Structure formats: C-alpha cells, structure tokens
Amino acid sequence: MATSAVARETVFALRRQIAKIEGTLPERLEVPVGAAPVDADVTPQNPTANLTIVRRGLAVAPPDAFLRTGAEGLDTALSGGLPKTALSEIHGAATRDAGAVAGFALSLVSLILKQGPRLPVLWIGTAEVFREAGFPYARGLHAVFGIEPEQLLFSEAPRLIDALWIAEEAARMTALAAVILEIRGSPQRLDLTATRRLHARAQNAGRPVFLLRQAGEAEPTAAPVRLVLSAAPSAPRQTIAGPLAGSIGRPAFTVSIGKSRTALPGQFTLEWNPNERSFEERRAGQERAKNPVPVVSASRRGKDPAAASGAVLAFPAVGSPAPGDQPSPGERAAHRRPRRAG
C-alpha cells in the first residue's frame, strides 16, 4: 500500500511538470486519493482545496490571483479569470471597435476598484489615439462603471516611445490600481522586449497592466492572455412584464480568446450590469434589441425605377436652361474674373 501511494504521488508530480512545460494540459488536476495537497487546507467545507492550478512558469497559483469577471463561461475557460498581476492584451480589430475595447477595459477597472482600495488609474496614449477614439465621458464613468472622474488620470504622450516609457514607470508604482496603455496600429517599438518589460513591472508591483490595441495585427507579445473585443447588439430591457419591445438594454461585448497559455480558443457574449458592477454571459436564445426605425433596403435593379423628381421651385421655370446645357461664354468668363478686394 505504501508503494502504491508513493507511485501515485510520483505520477501526479510528473503530470504537474508536464503541464508546466507544455502548458497544454488541463490546469486543474485532482490530487490522488491519499496524497497530501500542495499549499491547501482540505476540509469537507472546502472541496476545491484539492485542486491545483498549474500555469506555465508558475507551479501553483492561488485562486485569488485571478480577476473574475462574473461570466462563468469565460472565467472557466481562463481557469479563474484574468491574471491580476500581469500584462493583459485587449485587442480591437478595427478603429470602430475602440469604444467597445475602452468600455471593456473600464469594466475590468470597475471590478478591480470594487475588490480593493479605490486608487487612481492611469490611462496612457499618444495624441493620435485620443484623437481617433476620444476620451471617456465623465458622467458615464460614474453612472455605468462607478468610477469617479478624478480617479481616472490621462497621460497624452507626443510619441510612442514616450508612452512606453511612461507605462513602464507607472507599472512599477503601487499607488495605482491599474495602468492602461492604448496603442494604435502595429508599431515596431511594441515588440516582445517592450511587452516583457511591462509584464515584469506588473508582476513586481502586483498590479495589472492592460494593453489596448486599436486596429492592429495580432503580433506576438508577452501578455499571457489576449482578448479580441467587438461590440455586440444589446438585448431589450427586462421589466416585470418581460422584455420591453423596441428598447435598448445593457452594454454587450463579443469576447474571443485570441491567445492564452492554457485556455482553448472560444467566443462569448457578455453583458455589463451597471447596477451589480459585474458581467453576465448572454445565454443562447436571448433576443437582441430590434431597431424600431425602418431601414432602407439596399439598392438593386428592379422593374420599377424610382419616379423622376418634380419641378425645382428655387428657380423660375421660364427661360431656365434645359438639363445638360452648358453656361454661355459670358457666364463662364464672369466666373474667371478676380474677386474684388473691397
């Protein structure tokens, strides 16, 4: 019996080592019966204590090391949520997705502020980024995310190299709840070396750093997780009598796991609950809000063309040139005369 117990412990240790090296096996491995768990207090009231989370480069990660979004599907796929002390990449494929990316990042900041001290958050970007996407609305910050406007600090850098330097210096500060770095396109300076420095600073300070990408290519970075964001249609508002027809409900996001060291690719539709300050996963079958305004159908070649326009009332009908007539030489020469200075 003793030999069998030792063999089970050896097999379990080998499975953990393989998971650390490859990062492809399931993160949560059950401890064999009779084996002592690692850094866990196994009690009948704590049945999940015999689960070990194995990540590449990190043998055992406590459950509180991850930021849970509240959406069970996404949290389960990410084996607990987004890492709290790491660089996380939030990617928008097109410029029109910048609003959804920013809204999702603010939602994550709201979750962080709800769990810990309400420290300020620094948002860093270049002038081009803020010119294209704009700044968050102050009243919306408080009403939708519970963030006071004075808690969100902005740093507009003239060049990308300056923005990266500010982000590296801010990532090491423990006086900030989080650091947001927004980048547009696929600049060469945003390489593995730059993202590794940001990731290392975030780990040392114990604070998250969110890298927002606008209309950039999916290039290799040191971020353990990359989420691809886009806006999703909102569902109707829910009332006591049921869904309110023609209404627009809570903000919704389409979240895809673009890269993860442990999770498989997946796509989820999340709704942000501004009252509870948490995400909720939209289940299959939920209706999306319909636009009550009629939409003009696309033009096509039909048998009945549109009717010709009527008489133009701004000009007299008598003596007006026929359609297609050219102006007289005198009229053409008058347009060429120099404009009077007086």
Helix content: 25-40%
Beta-strand proportion: 15-25%
Order of helices and strands: HEEEHEEHEHHEHEHEEEEEEEH
Largest sheet data? 9 strands, mixed
Separation of termini? 110 Å
What's the count of strands? 15
Shape: globular
User: Any idea what the radius of gyration is?
Assistant: 29 Å
Whole-number mean pLDDT: 77
> How many helices?
8
Strand order, main sheet: write it out. 7-6-8-9-5-10-13-14-15
The residue ranges in which pLDDT falls below 50 over 5 or more consecutive positions are: 24-59, 289-293, 331-342
Global structural class? alpha/beta
Describe this structure in words.
The chain has 342 residues and is of the alpha/beta class. Residues 24-59, 289-293 and 331-342 have low confidence and may be disordered. The strands form four sheets. A nine-stranded mixed sheet has the order 7-6-8-9-5-10-13-14-15, sandwiched between helices. Strands 1-2 form a two-stranded antiparallel sheet. Strands 3-4 form a two-stranded antiparallel ribbon. The protein has helices at residues 2-22, 72-77, 98-115, 127-133, 138-145, 160-171, 192-205, 329-336; strands at residues 28-30, 51-53, 66-67, 82-83, 87-92, 121-126, 152-157, 178-184, 209-214, 225-231, 238-239, 242-243, 252-260, 267-273, 278-281. Helix 7 links the parallel strand 8 (178-184) and strand 9. Helix 6 (160-171) runs parallel beside helix 7 (192-205).
